[in-house]
Write a sequence for this structure.
């Protein structure tokens, strides 16, 4: 049974989902921009009972309190404080997109907390000539609507990639249907993530699985292959027909790759 819980870290209330079981090997799951911890229900179900997936609502997302600052270092500090509060570490860290960048930066800066990485389409560079546009402009999106269909119309009308990703993370809060984020916060957070993160990517040597969608504009194939070639102990698995959201485009394949990688790790 999963449980939605809260924790106070440095004065900010964070929400998280513990998918259990308590006896499982802990896996910290970190979502990307516009996501929330509960999106990892598929991972918790697939890896149980051997693994215990714990998914944090990162700052400005889900049930965690909104508000700046969104400097990438703050995301890393949040994850480290969260693991220490729970008395966990070293753990496997699974991260999608921005969550993957937080994951490998956590491994570089707090090596004692991370034993392995599973990264779904997380790049070593955000912005610049080798990758696609780094900011999805959601500045005109509403925070809330009376009906979920109204939010669906916003997402589909905007042409957002994988509309289900955005809609699956909506919820009814008693006053209407809402996205799990404030659009202004997401604009600020995306801009703050732009940068060259190669030093952090190369700053750890724990085993890492890099899952890459061949159609992704966030992580081009050439960059994914360079990341795997330059960092020791890194396994690259490519999904040529998938985009940035591999967990939507080929969930069975992603889970197989993840299980196979986890099976190579020594038991903690």
């Amino acid at each position: 049974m999963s449980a939605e819980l809260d924790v106070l870290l440095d004065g900010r209330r964070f929400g998280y989902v513990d998918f259990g079981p308590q006896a499982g090997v802990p896996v910290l799951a970190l979502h990307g921009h516009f996501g929330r911890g509960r999106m990892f229900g598929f991972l918790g179900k697939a890896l149980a009972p051997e693994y215990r997936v714990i998914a944090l609502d990162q700052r400005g997302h889900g049930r965690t309190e909104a508000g700046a600052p969104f400097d990438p270092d703050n995301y890393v500090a949040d994850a480290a404080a969260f693991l220490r509060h729970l008395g966990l570490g070293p753990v496997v860290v699974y991260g999608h997109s921005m969550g993957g960048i937080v994951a490998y930066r956590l491994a570089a800066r707090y090596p004692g907390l991370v034993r392995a990485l599973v990264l779904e389409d997380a790049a070593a560079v955000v912005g610049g000539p080798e990758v696609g546009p780094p900011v999805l402009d959601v500045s005109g999106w509403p925070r809330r609507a009376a009906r979920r269909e109204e939010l669906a119309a916003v997402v589909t009308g905007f042409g957002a990639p994988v509309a289900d990703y955005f809609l699956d993370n909506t919820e009814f809060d008693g006053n209407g249907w809402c996205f799990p984020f404030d659009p202004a916060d997401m604009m600020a957070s995306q801009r703050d993530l732009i940068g060259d993160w190669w030093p952090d990517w190369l700053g750890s040597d724990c085993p890492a699985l890099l899952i890459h969608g061949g159609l992704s504009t966030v992580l081009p194939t050439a960059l994914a292959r360079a990341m795997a070639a330059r960092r020791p102990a890194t396994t690259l698995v490519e999904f040529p027909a998938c985009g940035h959201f591999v967990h939507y485009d080929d969930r069975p394949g992603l889970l197989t790759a993840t299980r196979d990688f986890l099976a190579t790790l020594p038991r903690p």
